């Protein structure tokens, strides 16, 4: 069984955000109690997963959608039984003595609706699809619950025809992501029985776009011995920024046209691991309270990144060991002999470019100021974090080592 967690972040752009922590869910009547309890668990899981992935690929780019992975694993728990079910939910950070399974799934349902409906300025498509062999029949409780909480779509598939099955799945994902994720699966094993695909398509617009005329080829220092040339975007505008006195890094916060924010974090040379190890809700809160807003000359690479991850070893390290073992119990999914999960694959794509809302006016033009603005050059490995502030969700976490 292949669990394909496909995420796509199409156009990175940004909004008027008070910061991730600034919106108090207790004062937001549209935020349910279950959703309020879900949010911190999801963020903790996001940073935990991110650290494990970075540690497994220390010299490579990393880009994931943590909230998408959390939703897919929570949904998968509806088909798990016994200790496997407990492991999945505890691995996501939930204490089942303090929060019931019904509250967890209701929280994810509410979260999904908020992400899809709360902001008309952003275009976001989220969904799940289950491709199962024609010989299998889903159990009614699993089918009904996954449809209710996660809007799961199920499709009969002929896995004996590996080429036809992969074409069916690839076409589905291509259509759902508007052609931005293609050729997800190259060849399917005829022994495959169930494939779960979770996808997220996101498209936004910078509140203050970069001027394409200001983009120039610049050096990017991958490490002490490797320098690459990369198109680098520029703007000079009033931006939230911080030279952290606690952690060895600088950072800026940019905004979406809508419910979101982006943190670009530039660790000092050789201090990437130190900064990543310290990422937490408390760190984000401290940054949110410490930002200064002033004129900044900002240089960010025009990046296109993609990555595919087999999360088996990572999930095992995180305590979700039974997920892929022979003893894993997914008997709550189908009427026939329980399917075996063989892979957990996550794919994400990031494109950073100048696109913005034309009405926002040009960027990259220096105003008449008395002193030279501060300059932030993201010309060495950096971290990017993308949040939806209305739901307090970690949409994307990335580490850019080599933008080429």
TrEMBL record:
The keyword rRNA-binding does not apply. One of its GO terms (biological process) is glucocorticoid metabolic process. Keywords: Glycoprotein, Lipid-binding, Secreted, Signal, Steroid-binding, Transport. Pfam families: Serpin. This is Corticosteroid-binding globulin. Residues 47-403 form the Serpin domain. Its main location: secreted. GO terms for molecular function: serine-type endopeptidase inhibitor activity; steroid binding. PANTHER family: CORTICOSTEROID-BINDING GLOBULIN, SERINE PROTEASE INHIBITOR, SERPIN. It is found in: Secreted. Major transport protein for glucocorticoids and progestins in the blood of almost all vertebrate species. InterPro entries: Serpin_CS, Serpin_dom, Serpin_fam, Serpin_sf, Serpin_sf_1, Serpin_sf_2. The keyword Nucleotide-binding does not apply. Belongs to the serpin family. One of its GO terms (cellular component) is extracellular space. Residues 1-22 form the signal peptide.
